[in-house]
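agent> Task received from the user: take the single chain below, predict its 3D structure, and emit structure tokens. No templates, no multimer pairing.
agent> Plan: (1) validate residues, (2) run structure prediction, (3) serialize to tokens, (4) report one or two observations.
agent> Step 1 OK, no nonstandard residues flagged.
tool_call: predict_structure(input=
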Amino acid sequence: MPRRPPIITAGIDLAASPAATASAVVVWSGGGARLAGVRLGVEDGDLLDLVAGADRTGIDCPLGWPVAFIDFLNRQRRGAIELAEVDSVPDRTAIVYRRTDLVCWHGGDRPLSVAADRIAHPALRAAGLLSALAGRGLDVDRAGRGAVVETYPAAALRHWGLPSRAYKRAANGPARRELVRALLGAAPWLTVADDDRDLLIRSDDALDAVVCALVARASLLGAVTRPAPADAEIAAEEGWIAVPTGELSDLAC
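)
tool_result: status=success, residues=253
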């Protein structure tokens, strides 16, 4: 019986500039997985090649903007905004958060607003990358059914019962070391070279990229949140955050 080819998933912790962007590649075969590479300072061209070479890529960045926000901007250009539309925090929340963001809120996570926070800068870069990938003939469905899927590492870690807060930035190095220990302890089927393990401890960007690659695997297995039928149309435009629904151990099947 011929052996099945390995599955390749990739993860991208996308920043506004290449300097703060990280990527990871995980190769899945024979009931196990291997971290085949993790990088910092990744340029656009390398990101495009990464996605093209993977079965699915998880991207930690919004892949679209709220439909209500786009409508708001179009009407604002015409001077057609009623004060009552923006007179309260709930009114403004309905404009600047996507449907997937609000669903995550109800699940206990708080994504940033792509319309009203600095995450918009990476999202602008993501929009260019998705267009370039589409130009290469890849399916870049924003709801996560094609080459890419939107991820939220903190939500994934929380679902898997791992530390999901206070591991960012250099000052939280001890917490990040503990998170790497816990993650690899919960995934003994994942082979990680010593140098790569050290990089995950040093860099939260690199660590998030690996989590994105793991979520991409969950997405391929159908073990992530999907938009309800009523949200399918808006998810295709705004994007949809894929949060794992199964156990971390399920990924190595």
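agent> Step 4: summary for the user.
The first strand starts at residue 7 and ends at 13.
agent> Done.
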